Amino acid sequence: MALREQSYLVLLALSDGPLHGYGVIKTVQELSEARVRLGAGALYGALDRLAGEGLVTVVKEEVVDGRHRRYYDLTGHGRHLLAEETIRLTRLATTAQRRLRLQPGTGA
């Protein structure tokens, strides 16, 4: 199952352990080198969809400064799917580099 880039980045953000929503937003921005900027609506829509697919789960809830925080983490299925998608993307990138005669890691 191929993941949309946004979903892939959210799962990748959670690969180091649980994060609350703002932590996911910041990590996705860092991973994408500021190319992908998730708003709260897009993030929580993605998290709800990924939770419904059994890829993430809420592992902790707390109130900080009067604000409700939920912490999300990958499920075993989510980690497995993320690994499979990473392998697929790596193969695709390798094929593209070969076809375009690019030197890996040089951008040219």
From TrEMBL:
UniProt-listed Gene3D superfamilies: Winged helix-like DNA-binding domain superfamily/Winged helix DNA-binding domain (1.10.10.10)
Keyword DNA-binding: yes
InterPro entries found in the cross-reference section: Metal_resp_DNA-bind_regulator, Tscrpt_reg_PadR_N, WH-like_DNA-bd_sf, WH_DNA-bd_sf
Transcription regulator PadR N-terminal domain sequence ranges: 10-84
Keyword Transferase: no
Domain of life, per lineage: Bacteria
SUPFAM superfamilies on file: Winged helix' DNA-binding domain
GO function term, MF aspect, one: DNA binding
Record keywords, A-Z: DNA-binding
PANTHER family according to UniProt: PADR-FAMILY TRANSCRIPTIONAL REGULATOR (PTHR33169:SF13)
Record's protein name: DNA-binding PadR family transcriptional regulator
